[in-house]
Structure formats: structure tokens, C-alpha cells
């Protein structure tokens, strides 16, 4: 039995392209004691993979999590699949699990690194609301952002997975929620499906700050940012005293040579308004994942927290789906579902 | 009896110049019930006055503390002087006090807005170690920066009042302290008089980041910044995981048109290294001032915490002394002492 996998063929120069990845195949791995063999079904396509495709970011030591992936090595992030063989007492064949299985058809996980998905929810939820995106939204908004009832929360790239979940959690917690997105259709979805009070199309609004000010005349308490430098520069002058900025992602900055980035402006606002900016790395909160997952599951089970899924079918679609993340074409949680006929060689 | 005072004559265009201020004179004010009349002796010359001389910073609502001073109005900040008349039970003639008396020879303070200075220390200490600079250093370093024993602390503009005090407190708390300053003489003073482990001359070092890295090969845990955008951009790649940046001042940015500021670069470091940036406004900690002043007084009394004073004599020197703050010519706490002969009309 063959196991197909995507490896890094070349480092992206600017926006990632499908040619940066190469399809290879090898044997299906064998689980050791304490491990499980998982047959992937939903493969995650995540912007967070982008920094790991680059050369070292600043030429100096970085954390292991941000080490660049070597050329020729397997790429990917978290996936959801079905246990095929278990050598761990906590898992049985047929269980749905999620873990960092990466872009391959079959993968092996240590039991401690796998998480069983609740059978009452669709398994793809494990890559959205109950996955790293949901956890990032949860801890970013509530811990780093410390969003309080009655405050105004602005989410950038709000139609994205993390953004839409962060906005919904903020609304559930009694905040007034605003978002930015790149199409009128995404803005409509934010307002009509996700409970945002207002949404701004950053592509068509000539003056982003003015449009946001119109929607939030009293300013912004929490900025949950997924986009990066240029948009945060525009929003800083709208931040209220003691406002918090959560740096969750910088999708507009990834792959741009540092000297071409605009630089963060209006930083005097940090002093005049006593702002706090903090960078989010969700795995720092791993000890609290069970508590968060319990609350997220409750909301998801009650239909209060959803995530728009954008699912393509066919393992070989992974590189193209990933490249689309950076052009604003996708909307919501991007997943690739493995086509069973394809896997069986039909 | 005349009371001379400086008012704002024009808003600085770029660096402040002495001509931006105008000498006027009027009657000595009369204290109401609960107030005291103070004869100023040491007048403070503070970079923190600069933002209040500008037009509204961003064209939108700001806190009262940062409202621009109207043209023709009295300017200044905290001073130290002697009580001449008291209509408050807590003060008697002859007491040394500090308060926001501004650039005038005589001023009136509410009792609650005046602070008596400890008689065992020189009264000018009330404008340095025991004044707003000392309190800014204390709360910036220990509360916002949360500097811990054994950590590496980098202070920019470290030969300045706040910077030198922050560095000494960090050393007293068991941190390894590095600083930047603009002359070799200031760097020598940081090492030999203020207990800094290393000091970097930012004017003569071609590559600031490389020079700091040489002094701190393992990186920086706390950056106490008094300078602003460009220098922080250079230092960000040196910050260690979970590092804290205290934005205390932006002396290099004041008066520069926003579109000419370089913009903060290397902001990806916030996410990869989970950094926190917070703006300091010391008056937010007013409730804790007594506790801080007790500790600062103890250190100052024991000779463990000092501040280099740069004192000019003559009330009329105030505008020129203020302008010098922005050219790097001064070193340490800039004060103007009122010449008694001058005040008496000799």
C-alpha cells in the first residue's frame, strides 16, 4: 500500500505557488508501541504554514516551532482522520482523531499528540471550531485580548477561519463586533450569519480608518489582527485607552521581503493611549486546551459557533488550495478531503 | 511682586526652539482654602512636554493628559520649591514640595496635588529619583516590563534621567543591564557610575543591532525604550521569547511628521517570539506611588540610586534648556535653578 505525501520542493519567492511542493510516495508507516496509525480524511490548509517554508526569518535563533522546514521534507499541519491501527490504549480503530499528521494520506501519531473528536459533531469541526483555529480565536480573544462584555472588538480578515470564530466568541461574550473582509459577499456573511454588528470591505473602501470609525465612532477596545502591518497602522489611531491588540497572524506580510514591508505607523498611540500589543502562539496555552475545548464544544453543539467550510476534494489539490489562501479567493476554513476512489487507486 | 512665567508662543515645527516660548509676567497668585503658594526653586525641563506643544496628534479625541496646550497658555511640568503660604493643614511655610507648578516663579497647588519632599535628601531629588522620572522608571521596569532577576534588560537613551534610573533599578533587582547612549562619555558613565554591564554608542556604531548582540549574545528579555521607532526596529530581532517592550518615550520621533517616521519593522517577531509591547503612562499607577516612593527613597538614601543632574541657573534659561533635550547635548536630569538675585530684581 502506497502513502502519498507532499514535500517542500522549493522555498516560495513572495506568494506561495503550487510548484513549491512535490508529490512523492512511500510506504505506509507502522505505529510503534504507544502510537496510532491514522488514515487522513480532512487535510488542513493553513496560512500558519507559510513562515515555516521560508529561510530563517531574521538570520538568528528562533524557537523550534518556527524553524524552517528543510527542502525535501514533508509539509503540512493539523488534519483529521480515522484510526486504522492502534497501539495505544486510548484509541481504537474507527475513532476520529486530529493531530499534526501533515500532508500525507496516512500518518503515525503518539497517543499524547492525538486528540479524539466528539462523535456528536461532524469530524471536520475538529479542524475548525474545535481545532487550532478555534483555540487560537479563543485564547487570543479572551486571554491576550481580555475582551470584556460591552467592549468593541475589531477582527481583521474576519471571514477567515480564526477571524470568524473570534468574532462569534466576542459576540457570545457580549461584545460589539466589527470585521474587515475582502468581498461584499464575505461582509454580508459576517453580518448575517456570524453576528457581526458591521463589516467593512477593505478592498473597496478607499479610507479604511474612516469606514471603521463610522462603524465604531467611540473607537476599538480589542483589535484581533490576522493581517499585519499596513492595516494595523490604519487602525492604531482608532484604539481606545487601554486597548489591546492581539497579533494572531500577518497574512499580508508573509513572504514580503522585510525591506518592502511598510513598517508599523502611528506607534505614538501606544504611549498616549496605553495600548498593549501581544503576539499569539496558541500552543503556549496547551495546558488549558481541555477547558477551552469543553466550552467550544458546548457552543458548537448548540449551533452558536460555526465556521464556514471551503472543502476541495482530492489529495493532489493541496498545493493549489494552499496558494489560494494568500490571494483572498478562499472564504472560511480551507480543507482538502481525500477522495476514497482516488486513494484506492480507481 | 511680579511672577514671571513662560507661555507657548508658537507650536514647534520639528525640533522645539527657544522662540516657541514667550516670557510674560503677572501677579503672584493667591492660595484659596486648601491650597498652598509655592516659590519655585528647581524647575523641571522634560521631554514629556513636547507632545503637548503640538497640534492634536491624530486629529481625534485624546486623553486630557495629552491635550495640546493652547497658544498663550502657561507651559511646564513638575517643579520643586518652598512653601511660602499655606492654607492646607498638611503643609507649613518652609516645607519643600513638588507638584505640577510649571514654568513660573510662583505657583499655587491644591494640597492633594502637592507632595512633601523628604528633608534628609537634596530637594532636587524630588524631580529625579523621587519624581516622575523615578516613578516612570520604577513602574515601567517592574510593572510593565516585569523584569526578573537574571534577565537581560536593555535601556535606550540610558544616560537620560528615566533611562539611568531604570537601569540602576534593574541592576539592583539582579538583572544584567545594557544601555545605549550618544557619546563615549555617557557610555563610560553608564558602566562606571550606574552599574551597566555594557553600553553602546548608537552614534558611532555603524550596526546597532550587531553591537548589542555582541553585548547580549543570548538576547534581550526587557527593552525599556525612550527613543522610538527606528531603534526599536533594530532591537526587535534580538528579543527573546516572551520578551517585554516598555514604550516609555519616543524622543527621536517627537515633532517628526508622521509620514517621515520610518515605521516599526520586524514586527513578525511579536508572533514568533510572543512579545508584549505596552505604552507607559506613569500616572495610571498613582495609587501605588507611596509604595514606590518608599522603596526609591530607601535606595536613594543608601546611595544606591542616583541621577546625574545637569543644572542651569536663571529662570530665563528654560526655553533653551528644553530645546537642548532634543539634540542629545544634555546628560541626565535637566533642571533650571532660579537665581535668587535674579528673582529679587537685582
From TrEMBL, chains A, B:
InterPro entries referenced in this protein's UniProt entry, alphabetically: ADH-like_C (IPR013149), ADH_N_2 (IPR041694), ER (IPR020843), GroES-like_sf (IPR011032), MDR_fam (IPR045010), NAD(P)-bd_dom_sf (IPR036291)
SMART domains attached to this UniProt entry: PKS_ER (SM00829)
Gene3D superfamilies in the record: Medium-chain alcohol dehydrogenases, catalytic domain (3.90.180.10), NAD(P)-binding Rossmann-like Domain (3.40.50.720)
Region (Disordered) residue spans: 1-28
Residues making up the signal peptide according to the UniProt record: none
Coiled coil: none
Taxonomy, superkingdom: Bacteria
The keyword Signal appears for this protein: no
Pfam families in UniProt: ADH_N_2 (PF16884), ADH_zinc_N (PF00107)
CDD domains associated with the record: PGDH
GO terms of molecular function: oxidoreductase activity, acting on the CH-CH group of donors, NAD or NADP as acceptor
Keywords assigned by UniProt, alphabetized: Oxidoreductase
All residue ranges annotated as the Enoyl reductase (ER) domain in the record: 14-336
Protein's name in the database: NADP-dependent oxidoreductase
Amino acid at each position: 500500500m502506497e502513502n502519498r505525501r507532499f514535500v517542500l520542493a522549493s522555498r516560495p519567492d513572495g506568494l506561495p505557488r503550487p510548484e513549491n511542493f512535490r508529490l512523492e510516495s512511500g510506504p505506509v508507516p507502522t505505529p510503534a508501541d504507544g502510537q496510532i496509525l491514522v488514515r487522513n480524511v480532512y487535510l488542513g490548509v493553513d496560512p500558519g504554514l507559510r513562515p515555516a517554508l521560508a529561510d530563517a526569518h531574521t538570520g538568528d535563533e528562533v524557537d523550534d516551532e518556527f524553524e524552517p522546514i528543510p527542502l525535501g521534507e514533508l509539509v503540512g499541519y493539523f488534519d483529521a482522520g480515522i484510526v486504522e491501527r492502534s497501539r495505544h490504549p486510548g484509541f481504537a480503530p474507527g475513532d476520529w482523531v486530529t493531530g499534526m499528521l501533515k500532508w500525507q494520506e496516512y500518518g503515525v501519531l503518539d497517543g499524547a499528540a492525538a486528540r479524539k473528536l466528539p462523535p456528536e459533531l461532524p469530524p471536520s469541526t475538529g479542524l475548525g471550531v474545535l481545532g487550532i483555529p478555534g483555540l487560537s480565536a479563543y485564547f487570543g480573544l479572551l486571554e491576550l485580548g481580555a475582551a470584556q462584555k460591552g467592549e468593541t472588538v475589531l477582527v481583521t480578515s474576519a471571514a477567515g477561519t480564526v477571524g470568524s470564530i473570534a468574532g462569534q466568541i466576542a459576540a457570545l461574550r457580549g461584545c460589539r463586533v466589527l470585521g474587515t473582509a475582502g468581498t461584499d459577499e464575505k461582509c454580508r456573511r459576517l453580518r448575517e450569519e456570524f453576528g457581526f454588528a458591521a463589516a467593512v470591505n477593505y478592498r473597496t473602501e478607499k479610507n479604511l480608518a474612516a469606514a471603521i470609525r463610522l462603524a465604531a465612532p467611540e473607537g476599538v477596545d480589542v483589535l484581533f489582527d490576522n493581517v499585519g502591518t499596513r492595516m494595523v497602522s490604519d487602525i492604531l489611531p482608532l484604539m481606545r485607552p487601554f486597548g489591546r491588540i492581539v497579533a494572531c497572524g500577518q497574512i499580508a506580510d508573509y513572504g514580503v521581503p522585510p525591506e518592502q514591508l511598510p513598517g508599523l505607523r502611528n506607534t505614538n498611540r501606544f504611549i498616549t493611549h496605553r495600548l498593549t500589543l501581544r503576539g499569539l502562539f496558541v500552543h503556549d496555552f496547551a495546558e488549558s486546551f481541555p477547558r477551552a475545548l469543553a466550552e467550544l464544544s458546548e457552543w458548537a453543539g448548540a449551533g452558536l459557533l460555526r465556521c464556514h467550510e471551503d472543502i476541495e476534494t482530492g489529495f493532489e489539490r493541496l498545493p493549489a488550495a494552499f496558494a489560494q489562501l494568500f490571494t483572498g479567493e478562499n472564504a472560511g476554513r480551507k480543507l482538502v478531503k481525500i477522495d476514497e476512489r482516488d486513494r484506492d487507486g480507481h
